[in-house]
């Protein structure tokens, strides 16, 4: 029997699911940090995405050339996101990574305005505010710049993936598209991890707690997060879903504090506040623009 939900219930669930996605993705840097203490970035990525791919495989429908092509493109982008995030976290703290990754929203809006050749003063100043905030966070950390560079690259690629997903997603069943993406990531990460893959499995045997983190990332941070996001954006406008995603760095900092003991100093808190202010200002401008449109 088909379940019928009222508009208000769907809207409430859309908000709840969007908040859940932010919570799950916010926990990812902490989980990755725990895993790469033992496993290589390539090894954890292969195991994580293979789990997600297996979960979605039974739901593949209407397999065709266009689905494979679009899924492969998105999968390549997603592989680049996961890989750069893991490499960056080798030398960067999880709480700072969460805020650097939060720049993806700023990049998305910047892409949109540049493509439309309408870079307003509001967008320019807001982006500057967010980037200065990141500069303060990086300055306080004293961590190697290479890790922060990888995380900035991660945020940039993620913004590209969001734009591409907006083009490809309406063409295909969500679960089918997700399955192709995750199998592409699993294959690429297998090639990346191949030289040391046997050693990686031995590490998992020696540190069984690592398997729990990998399962969590594959099931919750990958498969479940994508499923909730897909459902949520059917029920609420994109600008409202994006507002909830702005809470992801906050969740990331909370997880890093409780599980890793990480925290900001005064300069870091100022920088984090500037990033959140910049992201919120971008989203409020987008909301007003959609209402006018």
From TrEMBL:
Primary location: membrane
A Pfam family annotated for this UniProt entry: EamA
EamA domain ranges (all copies): 13-138, 146-282
InterPro entries with a match to the protein in the record: Diverse_Substrate_Transporter, EamA_dom, EmrE-like
Name recorded for this polypeptide: EamA domain-containing protein
Provenance organism: Scytonema hofmannii PCC 7110
Transmembrane segment boundaries: 12-32, 44-60, 72-91, 97-115, 122-139, 145-168, 175-193, 213-232, 241-260, 266-283
Record localization: Cell membrane
Family, as annotated: Belongs to the EamA transporter family.
Keywords on record: Cell membrane, Membrane, Transmembrane, Transmembrane helix
Assigned GO CC terms: plasma membrane
Keyword Transcription regulation: no
Annotated membrane topology: Multi-pass membrane protein
